[in-house]
Amino acid sequence: MKPASHMKRRQFVQLATLTAAGAAMQPGRAAAETTAAHSLPALPYAFGALEPHIDARTMEIHHGKHHAAYVAGLNAALANAPDLTKQPLAVLLADLPAVSGESLRTPLRNHGGGHWNHTFFWETLAPAADSGKPSEKLAAAISAEFSSLDAFKKAFGEAAAKRFGSGWAWLVLAGGKLKITSTPNQDNPLMKGLVPDADLGTPLLGLDVWEHAYYLHYQNRRPDYVTAWWNVVNWAAVSKRFAENGE
Ligand SMILES: [Fe+2]
């Protein structure tokens, strides 16, 4: 596995780390990365483990139907491009403009983005009792950038609420600084050349605001879902990403 031509080594290492984090959920995933198909990672907790904040039925459908569909769509897109299966997904997404052919690039963007985003999302969650809090270093960085954890949550929630239609809100590291951003559809901050430069960065935290993530329980009340979601954020995972990717 070699860095893409225009990719700096540091960025490549960071992307490989993100991919390794995704692979950690699923024994055997690393082998799958180098042979053929991607597969649906098992959830690291039971469907009902995030209740009452995210209900079991939503988790079951979100993981077993929606995420599974992204995996299937990604594999279908890669069926005629076997060389691309050798790249870790994060690296592929960061270099999509290098993929020739809109008919291949678009499903890789939508389904590959969907697979990466959801794998990242499951790892970002934990039962409320295990949610914890940001590490000292992450808490200090959040306070330095946003003035307080509460102010950060407010600004992040506003980004999630303002995302029109389907998409994601993100906390990213960009140029050594924390930044809140959001992307439409299944785009993410790794997608250089497709997502505006202002939205790029290394994802630390991501919130799915597609209706499929909350509609069964919260209906149109996206802000209520966002408020409840903070109770099941896996701060240990977010802090670990910060430590691994921070300056
Ligand atoms: Fe989703």
Task: Supply the key terms.
binds fe (ii) ion; 247 residues; mainly alpha; minor pseudopilin epsh fold; disordered N terminus; Helix Hairpins; 2 domains; three-stranded antiparallel beta sheet
Can you put this structure into words, describing what you see?
The chain is mostly helical and 247 residues long. It has 2 domains: 9-47 and 54-123, Fe,Mn superoxide dismutase (SOD) domain (Helix Hairpins); 128-245, minor pseudopilin epsh fold. The chain has 10 helices and 3 strands. It has helices at 9-23, 29-35, 56-78, 89-94, 102-123, 136-146, 149-162, 215-218, 222-229, 235-245, and strands at residues 167-174, 177-184, 202-208. Strands 2-1-3 form a 3-stranded antiparallel beta sheet, with helices on both faces. A hairpin with a 2-residue loop joins strand 1 and strand 2 (177-184). Helix 3 runs antiparallel to helix 5 (102-123) and helix 6 crosses helix 7 (149-162). The structure holds fe (ii) ion. Fe (ii) ion is lined by residues 62, 66, 118, 208, 210, 212-213.
Report the β-strand fraction as a percent range. Answer: 5-15%
> Which small compounds were modeled alongside the protein?
fe (ii) ion
Q: Class of the largest domain, according to the CATH hierarchy?
A: Alpha Beta
Rg result: 17 Å
Poorly predicted runs: 1-7, 9-13, 20-36
> How far is the N terminus from the C terminus?
24 Å
Task: Indicate the CATH architecture of the largest domain.
Answer: 3-Layer(bab) Sandwich
CATH homology-level superfamily of the largest domain: Iron/manganese superoxide dismutase, C-terminal domain
Assembly state here? single chain
CATH topology of the largest domain: minor pseudopilin epsh fold
Number of helices: 10
Helix content: 40-55%
Please tally the β strands and state the result: 3
Tell the overall outline: globular
Report the average pLDDT across residues. Answer: 88
Main beta-sheet strand count, sense and barrel state: 3 strands, antiparallel
Number of domains: 2
SS-derived structural category: mainly alpha
What is the string of helix and strand elements? HHHHHHHEEEHHH
